[in-house]
Write a structure and sequence with these properties.
heterodimer; A: 100 residues; mainly alpha; Histone, subunit A; 2 strands; B: 495 residues; alpha/beta; Amidase signature (AS) enzymes; 15 helices; Amidase_dom (chain B); transferase activity (chain B); protein biosynthesis (chain B)
């Protein structure tokens, strides 16, 4: 499978990366080289093979459903959470208007 | 007195504890080395005051007769992938410019709890994506090593932990943290003549470490010898309830159990790692490594890892797929860069911010990842790659019936000149061909220096072990280290 400029533009839009036509064109051969190369995986007989989901067997742990269970990562950390925001107002993240 | 910057972790810890010198003296010596290291571009942020404050705390504890910890008074460098409370952390990216975490990663906190102190944050490939340290938004790290041909060509320290590798080999710090997703500890360790360990997946918490590919990322130590790696890994590792993939297992005392006696051990030599085009000097070093392990009492056995050839292409689907998802959080809303063109809406802001803030290699991988996860291609690429990953891991499981540890080269070549592979991402990816299989299988692995090639550049040998058997890997590494007697250092041209 290979991609063309139109498909690269579509991927860029799915990936939320603004890309000019020139940049898309430049990326076409780069992506195709990599995709051609990974194509060799198709040679591998994977009949009856399960896709890997966990590299080291481990059981799923769930934390207690308690707010603020860990003082560093629980609730009541609003100021820390907002400290690095490009725009924060009234205790919220500020973003451009979404609905007219 | 020996120059303090020549000392490793163990020598510093024991010297501080025994009163041969103070932690402050050690901190001052390394601060001076770091301050004079700008031509290497290894440090993104220097924290000399922080290093001295922590050193003074250690000296005060000693005066009171308290326990100083397994790394008491040892100043280290911290790869910029680890969030450090109050110190800018960017993963060498523009998109995280100005990000100052309000929390500490578990691995770095564990190190401070063990008595270590921080000299600063180390440059790296942007978001750990790269094998040459040429993708940082803050410029390339220059290896302290140069070819012995008399030229001054700037060489690659490897990547992604290139700042770490350069800093440790240039004696700017006795040790530093690295992270390994597909070889990012082992390859730069090999390129710079130092020792680096990637532990079993889950040994070190990923909490507070900026994510690249979550099913692969694993932190580990990079230091000058095996014993120092054993000490530092012991300090970094441990169960962390904040990381759901953290191993809830006892951390053995790797340092105490170090032994280079390999009697009764079988060392596997994977025949598929003898690839066309591998440098003959690398093959020679591999032969030499076999002999050293035999001398240490081990039996050498031939093994087969039949899916080796497919590990790298599988990796270059799985890692970008996970990266495209992990890096979705960089959108200009919560932290870092925001690019808001005039009159733009939310979607335009995301796209402009990410276009502005990500480097070319990061964009390439996010694009590949988005493509292989998109409707219509998911099964053909992603599911297929995950099935191949199962087969790669099964190869190793079958190999463990025949051997206890595997010996292989770390990389197919020694370090190369910066810029020489610029237009060739695929050739760059091939650098990790020997490192990636162990990453896909989550196995502990390390690189130890074994000598210099004809150009005077370091070469490394890789050891891969069974899950949770860091000790077996470290002991085989020690057997090589003792016999290789590697003591070469780069000539100090940068200050």
């Amino acid at each position: 499978m290979s991609v063309d400029t139109k498909q690269v533009a579509k991927i860029a839009s799915l990936a939320r990366i603004a890309m000019s036509d020139t940049e898309c064109e430049k990326m076409v051969p780069e992506l195709n080289n990599i995709l051609d190369w990974v194509e060799q995986l198709g040679e591998v007989d994977v009949t009856g093979v399960e896709p890997m989901t966990a590299v080291i067997p481990n059981h799923q742990r769930l934390r207690d459903d308690v707010v603020d269970a860990d003082p560093k990562t629980g609730g009541n950390r609003r100021d820390d959470v907002l400290a690095n925001a490009p725009v924060a107002e009234h205790g919220f993240f500020g973003v451009p208007k979404v609905i007219e | 007195m020996t120059e303090l910057t020549q000392l490793g972790i163990k020598a510093i810890r024991d010297g501080v504890a025994g009163g041969d010198f103070t932690a402050r003296e050690v901190g001052e010596a390394f601060n001076a080395a770091v301050a004079a290291s700008d031509p290497l571009n290894a440090f993104l942020v220097k924290t000399p005051e922080r290093a001295l404050e922590a050193a003074d705390r250690i000296d005060a504890k000693r005066a009171k007769g308290e326990d100083l910890g397994s790394m008491g008074g040892v100043p280290i460098g911290m790869k910029d992938l680890f969030c450090t409370d109050g110190v800018e952390t960017t993963a060498a990216s523009a998109i995280l410019g100005g990000f100052t975490p309000r929390y500490e990663s578990t691995v770095s906190q564990n190190l401070w709890d063990a008595g270590a102190t921080m000299l600063g944050k180390l440059n790296m490939d942007q978001f750990a994506m790269g094998s040459s340290n040429e993708t940082s938004a803050f410029g390339n790290v220059i290896s302290p090593w140069r070819k012995s041909d008399g030229g001054n060509a700037a060489m690659s320290p490897g990547g992604s932990s290139g700042g770490t590798a350069a800093a440790v080999s240039a004696r700017l710090c006795p040790a530093a943290t690295g992270t390994d997703t597909g070889g990012s500890i082992r390859q730069p360790a090999a390129f710079t003549g130092i020792t680096g360990v990637k532990p079993t997946y889950g040994r070190c918490s990923r909490w507070g470490t900026i994510a690249f590919a979550s099913s692969l990322d694993q932190a580990g130590p990079m230091a000058r010898d095996v014993a120092d790696c054993a000490i530092m890994l012991g300090a970094m590792a441990g169960f962390d309830p904040k990381d759901s993939t953290s191993l809830d297992m006892h951390v053995p005392d790797w340092e105490a159990a170090l032994s280079d006696d390999l009697s009764g051990k079988r060392v596997g030599i994977p025949r598929e790692y003898r690839m066309d085009g591998t440098d003959s000097q690398i093959l020679d070093s591999w032969e030499q490594g076999k002999q050293w392990l035999k001398d240490a009492g081990a039996e050498i056995v031939d093994i087969s890892l039949p899916h080796t050839k497919y590990a790298l292409p599988a990796y270059y689907i799985i890692a970008p797929a996970e990266a495209s998802s992990n890096l979705a959080r960089y959108d200009g809303v919560r932290y870092g860069l925001r690019d808001l063109p005039d009159g733009a809406g939310l979607q335009d802001m995301y796209a402009a911010t990410r276009a502005e803030g990500f480097g070319d290699e990061v964009k390439r991988r996010v694009m590949i990842g988005t493509y292989v996860l998109s409707a219509g291609f998911y099964d053909a690429y992603y599911t297929q790659a995950q099935k191949v990953r199962t087969l790669v891991a099964r190869d190793f499981e079958q190999a463990w019936e025949k051997c206890d540890v595997i010996l292989a080269p770390t990389c197919p070549t020694a370090s190369f000149a910066l810029g020489s592979l610029d237009d060739d991402p695929l050739t760059m990816y091939l650098n990790d061909v020997f490192a990636v299989p162990a990453s896909l299988a989550g196995l502990p692995a390390m690189s130890v220096p074994c000598g210099l090639n004809g150009d005077g550049l370091p070469l490394g040998l890789q050891l891969v072990g069974k899950p949770f058997d860091e000790q077996g890997v470290l002991n085989a590494g020690l057997a090589i280290e003792k016999r290789a007697g590697f003591s070469a250092q780069p000539e100090q041209w940068w200050s």
